[in-house]
Structure formats: C-alpha cells, structure tokens
Amino acid sequence: MVDVPTPEPSRWERWRRAVEPALLGLTLTALVVGGLAWLSGAPGVADRCWIAGTVLAIVPSVWWVVAAMRRGRIGVDLIAVLSLLGTLLVDEYLAGALIAVMLATGQTLDAAATRRAAKDLRTLLDRAPRSSRRRVGDGIEVVAIDEICAGDVLVVGSGETVPADGWVTSGLAVLDEAALTGEPMHVQHGIGEAVRSGVVNAGAVFEMEAHASAEDSTYAGVVRLAREAAAESAPVVRLADRIAAWFLPLALLLAAAAWALSGSATRAVAVLVVATPCPLLLAAPVAIVFGLSRASRVGVVIRSGGALENLGHATTLVMDKTGTLTSGRPSSTDIVVAPGHDSVEVLRLAASADQVSPHVLAAALVQEAKVRRLALSYPTDVVEEAGAGVTATVDGHRVTVGALTLPPQAPQWARTVLTRSALDGAVVAWVTVDGQLTGAILLGDPLRRDAPRTLRRLRSAGLTRLVMLTGDRREPAEEIGTVLGLDRVYAEQTPSDKVAGVRRERQSAVTVMVGDGVNDAPALAAATVGVAMGARGSTASSEAADIVLTTDRLDRLADAMEIARRSRHIAVESAAVGMGLSLVAMGSAALGWLTPALGALLQEAIDVAVILNALRALRGDRVHNTVVPARTEDMLHRFSAEHEVMRDKLTMFRDTAQLVATGDHRRAEVSLRRVDDFLTGTLLPHEHAEENELYPALAGPLGSGEATATMSRMHAEIDRLGRRLHIHRHQIDTRGELDPDQLEDLLACLYGLYALLRLHFVQEEENYFTLARSDDHTGNMPRT
Q: Which Gene Ontology cellular component terms are annotated (predicted)?
C-alpha cells in the first residue's frame, strides 16, 4: 500500500503558534507599565517601555508581511508595520505601543479563527493490511503487502481486509463494502466475481486471485486521491485580506498626499495610524471566533475561521446517501408471511435465532424485535453458514433465517416479495420454520426522519443546488432523490467518481460536501468545505473534513449554515462600518486635525464600537428556531410511539385487498373484520386525538393553525374512507357474505387507506415529530 506520511506542522507554524500569545502578553505589559510610569511622572521610562513594545511588534510583523508576500498575498498587516515604523520616526511612542497591542491581539484572534487543522490521512493507512497470506502450492506463506503481484492466490480470513483487487476463486465471499461504497448491506460474491481491496471479509475464509498489486489496487487509489485533493485545496483567503486589496493602496496614497501637501511626516504617520485596519484585525475575527463557539454548542466542530466563512456563502451542497441522507443501518421495512401465519411471531422466531449471529442483518432483526418489546427465546444447536444465514432450534422449532433460492413453483406471496424487494431496493431475509417457508422480512436503509426538513432549511439558508453522489444502485438512489427534491443524483459512483463530481461542482460555485465513510474522505478534501458525519462515521472522513457534526443528526448542518451566514454577515458589517469610520478619521488626520497619539486613541474607540457589534455573533438568531413547550413535546413523543406500534399493521390493508382481488372471499371477510376493528378501535381514535389535542398545541409554535390545515384535511379523508369501510363490513355481516357489487369500492377503500396512511405517517413524522428533541439523536426516519 502506498505510504503517505502524516502531515506535521512546519517549523514556521510551530514558531508562530508560540510567538503570537507571547507577543500579546509582552506588548500589553509594555503599554500598561509605560502608562503607569507616565502617570508617576517618569515620561522617559514611559517612552522606553512604549518603544520596547513597538519594537517587539515590529520584528514578527515584518516576518508575517514577508511570509505573506512570498505566498503572493499583501494583507492588512503591511499598514500596521508602516504605522509602527512611522511612530518611532516621529517620536509618537504611545501611538506605537497602542498599535502594537492592537496588532498582537488581532494576530492571536485571527490565528485562533483561521488556522486549519492538518488533514491527517494516517487513519486510511492504519486500516490497510500490512501483510497477507499467499498460497504457494499446498502451503500458505505470510508475505508483506508490497510483495503481492498479479496472479497470486491470496487467502482472506474472516474479519480481514482484502489486500488487493482480484477475483474470488473458491468459497463464497461475503463482504462489508462500506469503506468503498458506503453501502451498509453485506454483499455476496461467488466464484469468478470481482472483489476490491479495502473491503472487509464479513463471512467465512475464501480464496482470491489478485489481478493487480496492492499499490495499483482500489484502496491505495483512495489514499492517493485523498492526498492529492487535500494538497490541491487552496489556502483560505481571509475576509480582512480581501478588503485590504483596495484599502491598502488607498491608505498609502492618502498618507503620501498628506505628507506632500503639508510637508509634515507626522501628518502622514497620523494617517497611517488611523488607517491601521483594527476593525479588520479585530472585529471580523471576533465575529468568526464567536460563530465557531456557537457552532460547537450545537454539536458542530468547525476547524477554522476560513471554513466558517466559506460555509457562510456556499451555494452548492453535495451529499453522500448512506449514513448522510439515510440512517446507514439496515432496518425492517416490512414483514410478509405465508397464509395462516402471524408476522409478529415470525419476527420473534427469526430474531431469536439471529441473537448469536454477528451479521449486520441479524443485528437489525434483533433490534427490531427489541423495539417491539418481543420476548426472545435463547437458540440452541446453532449453525451459521456464511452467505446463507443461521439455523437454530427455537422453542422446539427448527428455524432458518437468511438467503434462499426460491424454487420455480414458489408460492405467489413469495414471488410478490421478490418483486417488491427489487422495486424497493431491499434485502430479503427468508424465514423457514420446520422446513416450511413461513415468512420474509424486507430490510432497507431508511431515510433519516430529519432529512426533508433539513434540506428545506438549507435551501432557505441560501443553497441553490443540492446534489447526491452515492456508490449505491441507481433505483434506490433516484427514489430518495425524488422524495427529497434533489437537483441531481449520481449513482454507482466510485471514490474517484465522487472526487471528480465534487471538483466539477466546485468550478462553478462554493461547494460543501457531506459524507461519513472512508470512501468519502477524498471528496471531502476536494470540496471547498468538507463536512463529516462524525458521530459514527469513519475517522478518516472526520480528519479530511473542515467541519465535523459530532451528533448523528443531519439538521445540525442546517444549524451550522445559519450560524455561518449570520457570523459572516456580522463580520462584514463590522468591517464595513469600522473601515468607514477609519476613512473619516484618515481624512481628518490628513487635514492635520488629528495627531498620531490622538488618532490611535480614536482608532481604539472605533475598535470598541465594532467589537461590540461583532459580539452579536455570540447570540443566536431565533427567527428560524421553533420552540416547542414541554407539554407539547411530550405529546409529540406519545403520538410518535403510537405510530411505531401501528405502522406494521398497515400492511393488513394491502393484504386484505389482495385476498379480495384473488377471489379468496372467506379469508378476505375475516381479514376485513380485523382491519375494521383496528380502524375503529386504534387508528381512528389516534387520528381524532391528534386533531383535537396535538394540532391545536402546535398552532402556537408553528405560528398559526394554518400550518396543520392540510394534515387536518387528510384526517378527514382517512375518517371518510374508514367509515365507508365500516359500512362494507356491516353489509357483509348482514348478508353473511361478500357481495360482488362491493368488490370495486372495497378495493378502492383498502388501497386508498393503505396509501393515505403511509403518506400521512411520513408527513407527520417529518413535519411535526422532528420538532421534539430526540433522545437517541439518531434522527432516523421510522420504517414505512
């Protein structure tokens, strides 16, 4: 694997980090001691102290200016150096000491706000294998990773990382490919199928033939891409330096004109003293630093002031799918059972058998059962076959959970499951009990509950283009793109494709990239601003990012965007007002109305004014915050919990409709009675309680009752269809059988309720339930 050294701070950077705080302390001491000496009647001592403070500031300031010029930047520090030198030449020592303190303070604040953290790529390397097992004849030898050549037969053990690109030659490879694609589902590869380096063997031992060396394989390319993208990122241009591009020549011209017209060097120095851009050196960094502080309080770590500035005027957002827009964890989307079986019992048996399996899908089933508070039994005689699943004895039944090849004459319900899984992009865990196919559990990667609201907030914050780059398949990616209203979706993207996509977007706009996996690290580094979902994302992506969301909540990105825009607005406002006042003072100094010392004091007064204005960045902007009272929040949690209980029962509407459509009227009548009992006893009372309790309580936080008006209309339609369905049941009970004249309207009611309720649940969860604080901070969209 290609070795990439971990970046270390340069000698210059280490020296600057040590000098800046020391310089502030020394110049401030010189100013204070000089002031005390002057008050004590020792002007000579005072002058010497102030001279010392001025000289202390000149030496590093000249160095900073020279270093900036070497990088092709001439910033505001140049005016400060000229002012310091000028005060010494015209014996205005107090003015020099004041400027020295101001300059040292500005450098310290600016460094705290804009110093970028090194993009540490060591995590990528630590994850890469250092050695591999290679088959030689009938034996196996351990070789260094660099010794692998194309054609070598490699043995990959369970839990090991695939060291090179190649093909499977024996066994079934069950791989965790999240490091490259971000996809949380394990992928199976049979003999002859290609595998890539960097993925983890999640199954049994298998053999593979390398078709490239480790250095030329996929994972090494990811490391190189991250290194190149990080090196390519240009240094952030400070807000102060952008304004200085026009202010610096103006100040020098005015000082030269004042000297030429008056013949007094003191007047020119006075112009430079009041031209010293304190609002830029102090106020702008103060606003940025306080913006960083506010962001950290909401769980967003922004590593530099430059990143905050760029985030504040970004217009394009590029996102990964898995773990960013979706939960990144597989969960049950539906349970389908054979006729005569109960879905809850099928899940209980499957989860009981899966308790001892380390497979990610097994963990999802067990978690699902725990959420429903099912009593699991301990399995015995457990046999796990890689790629096939688990077989165990549970409560006297032999239960198998996992992959299954259906026979040609598979029952209709099972063939329907296959069709649905293909349409939904779901993985199917088949369940057999005592050798009979009993049920199927569909698992998918659900959309985060807070994703739609967050993307709407981001658009309102100024983002005009939302793009998704994902390694996942096209169908589920485009479905999510449609639901979220994304401007463009790119699916089946490799890490290099993602980097190219981010670079393409960056050419036309300031671009933010959000991701959470190792495969996202290069794209994060290539973006103007990289944002990592750091709560459970990879360390590599966090270290390649400029911003890290420390909680697993996407809405924190919208918070960060709003904070960044507000902080940048205040910084620009403070700089503009301060520079305007400085321009007025420069004109007064040019006319001889201000001495250098008086000009320095006036400049300090301007500093205080703009810094006080910059302090507003520490306060939150409450305009976009929806504050929910505690009682209302308790209601939201209550109704959300009721949704969790009812959601799995919604499939009975579709199942009943299928019985009606296939002509199985006797079973359809029994199923219809269960549907009606659920409607009248559970679902409609829940809807009525929402209408009469929750929606009025939300009118205050949301601004008016109109915010829930459309949802109230949907309640009315659900109630109408429910009553219509109850009439059908009453007619069946009266006649003793289902009348053919009822079929068309009955099907319309059943399918209509199924679609309406699914949509209604999702809308309420996205629009209202997300207003409540999440106890687990997952922010995941519940299963629908």
A: plasma membrane
